Amino acid sequence: MIQCNVIKASYDYGVKKLLFVGTATAYPECCPQPIKEEYLLTGPLDSTNEAYAIAKIAGTKMCQYFDEQYGTNFVSMVPNNLYGPNDNFDLNTAHVIPALIRKFHTAKVTGADHVEVWGSGNQRREFLYVDDFADVSLFLMNQYDSSEPINVGTGEDVSIKELVETIEKIVGYEGNIVFDTTKPDGALRRLLDVSKLNALGWKYKVDLETGLKMTYEAFLKHLEKNL
């Protein structure tokens, strides 16, 4: 409801350009990899993200239809998973990277003998550092004027198992990792085709390990301030 009100108000008040942030979960659960923009609405969604995905699809299509009917310049980007400093590290609501950082740090300081991770660890995901996301947002505002959605990401993915092992190393945890296979994996793979974005001249700068190190450092500073 918020996005629809903002898009409508942008039209009513003559906003020259609007950048709408969609989501990679809007793509079908089972579609060819890497995922091209034209795969939107070509199959059933991942049931674990369906409500969120439908809302984002509605915003993306609303921008597209306003462009077609009213000649607006409402651009839609489709980013993959974002992470970085100032993320939400609350284990009840956090996404995968901040949740794992919090889990491993807590296990390290409490001396826990294992860390439990949801799923098999075999699913693959793509992650974009928040500063790169900010940079590409400005880039698209200056360089992209199409009504067609455009994918935003690194064009590279990693298994959750590999991600977990990297975070374990960065945090310095030395216990065991237990994958809870009774919990859902979600889509087996979600990698975006970013050739359209790369052809415009933009490519990410922060690699995953560097980004994870900066995120953990920011998390530690946050803990220090709140002691």
Could you characterize what this model shows?
A 3-stranded parallel sheet has the order 1-2-7, with helices on both faces. The chain starts with a helix and ends with a helix. The chain is α/β, with parallel strands linked by helices and 227 residues long. Helix content is 43%, strand content 15%.
Which features would summarize this protein structure in a list?
227 residues, alpha/beta, three-stranded parallel sheet
Q: Major β-sheet, in short? A: 3 strands, parallel
Shape: globular
* Whole-number count of domains: 1
CATH topology: Rossmann fold
- Number of E-state strands: 10
Percent strand: 15-25%
* Radius of gyration, CA atoms, in whole angstroms: 19 Å
Q: Counting H and I runs of at least 4 residues, what is the number of helices?
A: 7
Structural class estimated from helices and strands: alpha/beta
- Write down the CATH class: Alpha Beta
Helix content: 40-55%
Mean pLDDT: 95
CATH superfamily: NAD(P)-binding Rossmann-like Domain
Strand order of the largest sheet: 1-2-7
* Unreliable residue stretches: none
Helix-strand sequence: HEHEEHEEEHEEHEEHH
The CATH level-2 architecture is identified as 3-Layer(aba) Sandwich
Distance between the termini: 38 Å
